[in-house]
Each structure stands twice: as C-alpha cells, then as structure tokens.
Request: fold
Amino acid sequence: MTSNEFMFSVFPYVTIIIALVVTPIRYFVKRFSYSSLSSQFLENKQLFWGSVPWHYGIILILGGHLLGLIIPQSVLAWNGVPWRLYVLEGTGLSLAFLTIFGLIMLMVRRAVQPRIRAVTSVMDVVILLALFVQVFAGIWTAIFYRWGSSWYAAAAAPYLWSIFSFNPNISLVENLPLMVKIHIIDAFFLVSLLPFSRLVHFLSLPLQYIWRSPQVVVWNQSVGAVTNSQIKG
Ligand code: HEM
Reply:
C-alpha cells in the first residue's frame, strides 16, 4: 500500500470510525463534559476579538465547503462568469483572513493570559495547532492554486463522495500539491479529535435558548470587592 493509498483511502475511515464510536460514548458517559468549557468568566475582552471573528468566519467557510459538496454543478455554473468567480473567491478569502485573525487571537490569549494558561490542556494546544494548520493550508490553497472553488467542485467533492460511498477514488487527489493534501488530511485528523476535545461542543446546539425565558445572572457582591486574592481562594 502506498502512502497516498493509506492517507486518502484508509485514514479517512479510521478518523470517521473514531468520531462515530467515541462521540456517543462521551455523550452517555461524561455528558457534562459535552461543552466548549467556556473560559469567558476568566477573561472576556481578548476572547471577544478571537471568538467572534473565528466563529463567523469558520461557520461561513464550512458552509461554503458544504455547498460545493452538495451542489457542485451549481458552483461550477456560478463560476462560469468571471466576475461571479471573483466574488466567490474574494468572499472566501476575506472570510479566511477573518478566521485566521480570530484563531491567532485565541492562540495568543491562551499563551499570554495566566488564568487561561492555567486551564489550558494539552488537547487545547493540539486542537488550536491543527486548526491553524487547516486554515493556513486553506488560505495557501486559495491563493496559489486557483481557482479552488471550481476544482473543489470538480475534484475534491467527487473524492469526498467516493469516501462516503465506500468506494474511495484517490486518483482525484493523489496528484494534488502537498499543501492541498495537508489540508485534506488535517481535515480528517480534526474529525478524529472531535470527541476528545472541546470541539465536540459544536454538536450541542443550545436550541432551547431561542424560546426559553432570559436568564438573569446577578453577582452576590459588588464586582469591585472581589479581589484577586479572593478569586484565587
Ligand atoms: C475541518 C475542515 C475544513 C476546514 C476548517 C477548512 C478550511 C478552509 C479555509 C479556511 C479555506 C480558505 C478559504 C477559502 O478561500 O475558501 C479553505 C479553502 C479550501 N479548502 Fe478547506 N477546509 C476544510 C476541509 C476541506 C476538505 C475536506 C477539502 C477537500 C477535500 C477542502 C478543500 C479546500 C479547497 C479546494 C480550498 C480552496 C477554495 C478556494 O480557492 O476558493 N477543505 N478551507
């Protein structure tokens, strides 16, 4: 078996099986860990500048990937007119810069805020690095291997469908440039990390927030009176 065969036709299944098996186990065995383990109470300002751009950027970009997967023919038809291709690529790239800005802010926050460092696990570091590699490789791909939105629809989407239909067709991806391969392999690596990290929180959409009555949070003493020594206990 060649390294390409292993990475593009075996590794994806290993990661998907890990995610499918371990994710429900975590849900039933450690249900309260099914969370982003928010650190907002420990530091909020830098979190805002990291979390907001990161989430808006990555959700829209992954939405774009999903569209290319579900309606590749429509993406190709849209890209048939040059200005529409530029709009799509320009929007994707702008969102990618927003995303990487947010991600870097989140990484810096974990590195420089002592309180956040104290609650940072090895998995938090691994996940941030894997996400950084993913977004960086995506930006690299978009800039240097044009026009990615078209060949994503024509080659990457059929490859992904070949995986989902248990008939991997690695000829669609084995000759792609290294950075694109890293982008694809790291995406599957992230899938395998899902149940072991705080990334799992994206599966628990708090939908009841939409209709439940607002929750009022009240400090039981003035914030100013809470000194650092009290917080440290
Ligand atoms: C965890 C999953 C993934 C994340 C977070 C991610 C993220 C990104 C980001 C941030 C970009 C740059 C934004 C853009 O220009 O559109 C990008 C571009 C791209 N990604 Fe992904 N990606 C993921 C999975 C994949 C997979 C599985 C494939 C292919 C099998 C893929 C193929 C591409 C291609 C071809 C581009 C270039 C698009 C263009 O030039 O417009 N991505 N990705």
